[in-house]
Amino acid sequence: MTRRHAPVFERIALCLFIGLIVWAPFPLGSNRAWAWGILETGVFAAAICWLIGWVRNEFRVSGVLIQAWPAFALLTAWLAYLAFHWVPLPAALVGVLSPEAAKVHALVADYGANGGATAYLSVDPDSSFVFWLKSCAYATAFFLTIVLCRDRSRLRLVAYWLVFSGLLQAVYGGLMHLSGEDLVLFGARVTHAAQASGGFVNRNHLAGFLEIALAVGIGLLIADLEDTGRRSWRRFARDVASVVLSRKAPLRIFLIVMVIALVMTRSRMGNTAFFSSLLVAGAIGLVLSRHATRSTVILISSLIIMDVFIVGAWFGVEKTVQRIEETTRQDVEERVDPSGQALAIYRAYPLFGSGPGTFYTAFSRYRSEDILPFFDYVHNDYVQFLTDTGAIGLGIIGLFVLMPLGAALLAQVRRRDPLARGMGFAVVMGVTAIGIHSTVDFNLQIPANAFAFMVLLAFGWLALNLRRGGADVPGYLSK
Questions:
Q1: Is residue 16 part of a domain?
Q2: Quick count: other Cβ atoms within 10 Å of Cβ 162?
Q3: Which helix (H) or strand (E) holds 188?
């Protein structure tokens, strides 16, 4: 029998990974080169520690790793596809695959230095390499979530820390907003006085992070409900009281604080996405869940709605509602939004895009005179992926997101485990919220939010495949 060592390196990997979940939002959402460099280094270091622990036979690896092979196949294809943009290719091949990119590189002054032998699919290969490196870190975070959450207690631990990270952002953002003080943080002015922004420059990105944390928190609350089949109204009332008064009370308080902070962001689409995703996930849960009682979703939905209308009313929810009501069609048309004109990039680079991370460079050629400010990102994640990576790239990454969403839906149909059902609910709600919010914003271009989103997607596979028995049951892999 192979000797098993103490899981020292795996614990180091877990602690480092949890630390990154808490750290990532604070330095402007890690949306600065030095900040996302720290995030990437930390993720890769955690992966190395886990690998050392596996080589030392410190633990058994969850069978979920094999069951999630379609996701890893798509991630591999995605990373290879992105790398294809920044590696030098024969100029004739680039001319066939992306004629517009070939024309751009033909205009570069030093193009003739290599005799015209090579070119790139990306109009800015350096920016594409940076984007590829970020994507490698996100893919590694997805992998680490699955292998580190090798039993139910680990899954619950990582989920709670993600909620705690949202709580820290909510408390920090809420207190700074109530203080009315604007700060210059890491060289960027954060306008706390007008709205809650937390560690982010843009309030909408705090809203996006809270959408993910709230979804996971609600999932954990569902996971703590007892699986008791049909219940009388008396039993239902008793369960409501137990949620409010029992050990679940701290989690309830966390959710209340995060809802307050979400309202304080004054983010119209952030609040709309949260409420809509809650209703959608609740309705889907009612329809699909064969084992959970209907009161599970009704209970959680009713409690969160009460939070918004009772607690949120004291912290400006009416102002957010007023902003939404006062948003007219003319306001939308007059808002400076590059997404419409950005589609010209897609028409010029339909299959492969202008290159991952190249919007800032490519858009300068297609912007109209009435758009005065420069934009680093399209204010629409769908258009961003379409223009940067083309129809092929959008198809790959879209399928990758849909697969764990499908796994989460199956978990609500098949699983009796309350934690699995709760995490399935969290994934459905979180993906729906970000999907709605992404129509007008770029949360998935912000490293902290993209990192948290990858953790959430991994929960979908864990919800479907992680067994109640933990890591020492048959079907788990050992080195």
A1: no
A2: 26
A3: strand 188-190
What residue has token string 């993720």? 43
pLDDT at position 44 over 90: yes
What is the rounded distance in angstroms from the CA atom of residue 329 to the CA atom of residue 351?
Answer: 33
Range of 458's domain?
21-465
At a CB cut-off of 8 Å and minimum separation 6, what does 269 contact? 204, 207, 436, 437, 439, 440, 441
Residue 479 in domain: no
pTM for the predicted model, two decimal places: 0.90
Query: Does residue 6 form part of some domain?
Result: no
Q: Angle CA(364)–CA(366)–CA(367) in degrees, nearest 5?
A: 70
Residues 186 and 28 sit within 8 Å (Cβ to Cβ): yes
What is the count of structural domains for the chain? 1
Q: Is 40 helix (H, G, I), strand (E, B) or coil?
A: helix
Residue 61 pLDDT class (50, 70, 90 cuts): confident
Please check whether residue 388 lies inside any domain of the structure.
Answer: yes
Encoded tokens for 203: 């309030």
DSSP of 377-416:
S-S-HHHHHHHHHHHHHHHHHHHHHHHHHHHHHHHHHH--
Give pLDDT tens digits for 97-113. 999 998 888 877 454 44
